[in-house]
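Model it.
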Amino acid sequence: MKEWISPVYAFFEPTPRIVEINGRRAHEFKCGARGCKTTIRQFLDKKDAKHVKSCWGNAALMAADDAKDANEVRTKIVTESFERKGKGKVTYSHRQHTRTEAKAEIVRWVSESLGPFKIIKDKGFQSLMKTGRPEYHIPSPTTVAHDVKLVFARTRQRIARMLQEYDGKMNFTTDGWTSMNHRALVAFSVHLEHQGVPLSFPLDIVEVATVQK
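Modeled.
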């Protein structure tokens, strides 16, 4: 099995069956897609790639062509956390997250939902994540807090570099409001088009100083 390193093998279960068809022995690979019962016999050739295209999509197959081997495909392509298809429909990966991917997903979940870091220790969350897979790694609230700050710092650097190198027009806007605790705030945002997609980034939020008479 060490020789089975072609990227296309990543889309099938790692251990094949040895079967005999009409007096001929063959390796039988089962598709790794959830709910798919298709099996491919003999060596992985055009027929196998054709099934991968029908079950996983042409984009995944093309991406696999650029990978070094099957292991790279499994960790970087097949194990994508989720992808959006059609009208906002979310489809999930057929494979469990790796340790690194789990940390990244938790960082995104906590950030987008504005949840507290301590929610990681919630018994209900722990039960949902570990039932049936008690070995599943869940980082500590301290680790999540550290990762969120790290992602924020790197994202800020990336946006700054994008704006500095941007060859086009950018629009800047401001918006002011008063918070519920009677503090006056002003936000600064930038708007631009990147590869045909309109983007908006909040640059800063400052509190308006009060003048003492």
